[in-house]
Amino acid sequence: MGSVDYLIVSLYILGMILVGLYFQRKAASGIDSYFLGNRNLPWWALGASGMSSNLDISGTMIIVALVYAIGAKGFYIEIRGGVTLIMAFLMIFMGKWNRRAGVMTLAEWMKFRFGDDKEGKLARLITAITSLIMTIAMVTYFAIGGGKFLDEFLGIPNLLGLPSEFWAASVLIALAMIYTVASGLYGVIWTDVFQGALIFLAIAYVVIRALSIDLPDEFFVSMPLKETAGGGYKAYLTSFKDWTNVMPKWNLNIDSNSVYSMYNLFGIAIMFYLFKTVIEGSGGTGNYMIQRYFAAKNDREAGFLSLFWTFLLSFRWPFIGAMAVWGVSLATQITDPEMVLPAVVSTLPVGIKGFLIAGLMAAAMSTFDSTVNAGAAYWVKDIYLERIKPDANNKQQMRQSYLASILIVIIGLGLMLVIKNINDIWGWITMSIGAGMIIPQLIRWYWWRLNGYGYAIGMATGTIAAILWKILAPEGTAEYLAFIFSAGLSLAATIVGTLLTEPTDEKVLLNFYKKTRPFGFWSKIRDKFSTEFITKINSENRRDIFSIFFAVPWQCCLFLMWLMLAMKRFDNFLILLISTVILSVILYLSWFRHLSTEVREEKEK
Structure pTM? Predict the structure, then answer.
């Protein structure tokens, strides 16, 4: 980078720190303020922050790598997590269901669902522990991508026997920690809003530049090779028509020596990714994403923030497509597909380079700050206050918030020295440890009989299974096998644990159903309420079930539409645009216009 680039990046960093310090006093008033912003943040800020939090460097680098190497079909691989398809479910019903609990964390939600006796406390503790494990994994994932990216520009040498990527990630994380620790969710949200604006300017520049690039009819792309094949990278010939083909194939026929050959059974992989997404979306989510809904003011604003979040997030895809196109045009400079992003940025002129690096640092920091803030809440709210020091004063609670944030980061950075590949850690997060948690989180909404013991046993079993898979599974094993292993053991443990123990107290279940109003197997509980109340709930649930069948393809068409624009496939862009408009009209009639209609809770008799 030139001196002008360093100046731009320095001004950005200074701005982030000042915003964080500005909100420090407001955030320090209590943990409800520190972790939820007193539930007084506007929906558009929560939505914009959510979008910024989903645009991380690590995720962007791996998605760009997949689209660069495999073409538009790489979109379908990232249904596993990078498309964030669970937003459709959060938008239609899952966001408002979570908001209605009035809690701070997913672990605290267990008290709402299972009560405050032994089973509720056990479910809460296990959820807090597994959520902290997931948070640490996410920090590691963030550190690998951020370190790889910044290492290309900072020129930090290897020190103390540790690689330069580690030190680059440490610099990025240390800067983000300043405002994250100081100002909590207030700082996270408002810095994310500012960073979101910076990200959009970077996206606009990259897309406009990429539209001036004309790719040849045939060109080479690079793919990583398996360690058993000697490692390294190899160039493969492809055609523009096939590379930009948005229609998925049953088989990809990638060289068996390539790491990406794990996606050769493409049809099976996509079905599993969709299956996993439907389960995850129907079961809700955790950590920083669900924190936005716990902080929402009401059902209506939960819907608004979801729609705004999803719309803004769609603009990630023209950026990814543009970066992939640009990477192909630099074919002779690309070996590692995961390095396409920094390789493109390195070709930019002085000034523009600094601006884009600042934008990508913003993307990285916005994911990191949200993850750490949400993760620290599990320690403070669900372990420290619940199990260690229930009478802790505000000063002690805030001290624990700061210490938990720092410790999470230190452990995540340490794991970066063991795990080197972005796709490796991302695949494990989305298809292994995520799969181990996904079944209990699904069943908790739809089956009254699930109790806290079954939930806790299922979560613990799935998490342990995922960790064992990471240690023992051979290199290159299909990701859907990891999903089957972790989710299968978790499902069996959840059902057995539930059926061998007593049901949850009926009073707890009545309160949960009265406030949340889910669909599913709740007839035993529903029969306790008036016919009028149940009729209104049925009407709301029927609209939501109908709408979700259109919300998922709507989100896919919206994202693919922008990807096709960046790849200059205007024929596909037009078809997807028309599809998006039609689906938008249907969703307006079936979902959006009903957002202000809320079913009032049944009064206790």
Answer: 0.82
